[in-house]
Amino acid sequence: MTNPLPPEVSLSALGPRTRIGAGGQGTVYALAEDPRWVYKEYATRLVDDVDVTTLNRFVRLAAGAGPDADALLGLAAWPTAVVRKEGVVRGFLMPRVPERFHVRIQLPRGPDTVLAQVQYLLNNDDYLRDRGLHIDNRMRLELLRDTSEALTLLHRLGVCVGDLSPNNLLFSLDARPRCYFIDCDAMRLDGDSVLAQAETPEWHVPDADAEELATPATDAFKFGLLAVRLFAGDQQTRDPDAARRRLDRQLVLLAGRSLDPAPDRRPAPQQWLDVLDRSIRRTPPTPPGTPPAGREPPRQEPSRPSPVRRIVPRPGAVARPRPAGRGWGLLVAAAVAAIVPLVGLINANGDPSGTYPRTGQNLPTGYPWNSDRPLDYPGLPTRIPGLVLPTDALGRTPGYPTYPDLASRLPLIRACLLNDVTVGRGLNAASARTKAAVSAVDSFLCALWNKAVSLDDRSRTQTARVATLAGKGPFHAATIIGIRTAASGSPQVNVVFEPVGDGPSSGCWRSRLSLVKDDDGYHVGSLSAPVRASCP
Question: Which GO terms describe its molecular function (predicted)?
Answer without folding.
Answer: ATP binding; protein kinase activity
